[in-house]
Amino acid sequence: MDRGSFSKYSWIDFAFSVIGVCTFLVDWGSDIWVATEFYCRGDFIWFGVLVGLMVLSSVVVQMFSWFWFKYDRELPGFSAETGAGTVLFGDKVKLSCLLHVLQLGFLCRHISAIWQGFRVWWRKEEGSEYAVYLTHDLSMLRLIETFCESAPQLTLMTYVMLRTNKARTVQFVSIAASTTSIAWMVVDYHRSLRSFLPDKAKQGWGSSLVYFLWNLLLIAPRVAALALFASVFSVFIAGHFILLWFVFVFWVWRQKTDFMDSVGGEWLYRATVGLIWYFSWFNVAEGRTRGRSMIYHSFITTDSGILLATWWCNRDPVLTEPYALALIITLPLAYLLGLLFKTLYYCCFHPKLWRPPVRDPGLPDDLPDAEVSFRDVSIQDSKLSSQFLNKRMACHAAHFYFEHGAFKNTDSTKKTESSHV
């Protein structure tokens, strides 16, 4: 394949980086606004929960960023090729550590990606592979930040509106910012994974729209069900989360993930995936993942149904009369519609590859998901591609497209993916 087709930095990548940092700043600004409103009104519990979510999200993202900074420094020749000052001030480890402690590492990554992208796109300088490398990391960090903060915050804001039976302007702004953050993450993350497809199969706007819709239609009812349950049993929602989180972390551990390059980093990743699964499906392991996806959606459907039934039986019939019947009908239908859109996407809109599938004779014939070899995008073709292919995101892309018919995992793939751990 043409190596440049999956390492070339374009103006679209630059635009996504700029919009990403703007979205990040707007989301944090709205968070501070909402927190200030809660504090001034004397709602100290909600203020504490919101600030706690902001701090938790920031700390988790900074930890991932710091782990990756340390891993990248150990890559042969990485610092020399990227140059001082391009990412988190190059070799100044102490300064980088200070920035992460001050919760500025994520923002500095955004700025670094924008600057590197500007140099490549506007000045036509070398470094396209490295600019793409940075954008891949940012897409994953935005995913983590979204489900550590935006999704829980959206649940909190919905709960506050239900609890008080009224909505303030600041709450609408917060809900809009959180929803926008989630939507942008979905598009950005999927687009980042798409760059690892062999032959760069094109994805149209229709495909992107359907992909966005099924994610939104699955996440929104889940968030609403959690908020409705919390509105009648506020004390038990924390126990519900902790119980499911432990189950999900155990399930991640059983799948033997190897995303990070250290034991501590890997357990951080597993804990974060457990949090993501509380709201949405996220594939983390190779193999036949269709069955795991069906188990997950069946479990979440059952759990959300129990939460809705609990809310319906314990709600205030007078206060909830204007919207109760509509919600109890709309939310399950929306989730089912999301599952239908997901099926439709993978049947009709999933990007098709240009070359015939490459079958591995060592794999059984009953693996419909194993169609194109990941070795076609080998990261060992040259020193540059081996050095600057983002193995973390390439691993996720292999898992994602293995599941849905674009990759198959071979022994060479496993060696490639495990070479960074």
UniProtKB/TrEMBL annotation:
InterPro entries: XK-rel, XK-related_scramblase. The chain crosses the membrane at residues 12-33, 45-69, 169-187, 203-220, 227-252, 267-285, 294-312, 324-345. It is found in: Cell membrane; Membrane. This is XK-related protein. GO terms for biological process: apoptotic process involved in development; engulfment of apoptotic cell; phosphatidylserine exposure on apoptotic cell surface. Coiled coil: none annotated. Belongs to the XK family. Keywords: Apoptosis, Cell membrane, Membrane, Transmembrane, Transmembrane helix. It comes from Sphaeramia orbicularis. It is a multi-pass membrane protein. GO terms for cellular component: plasma membrane. Its main location: membrane. It catalyses: a 1,2-diacyl-sn-glycero-3-phospho-L-serine(in) = a 1,2-diacyl-sn-glycero-3-phospho-L-serine(out). PANTHER family: XK-RELATED PROTEIN, XK-RELATED PROTEIN 8.
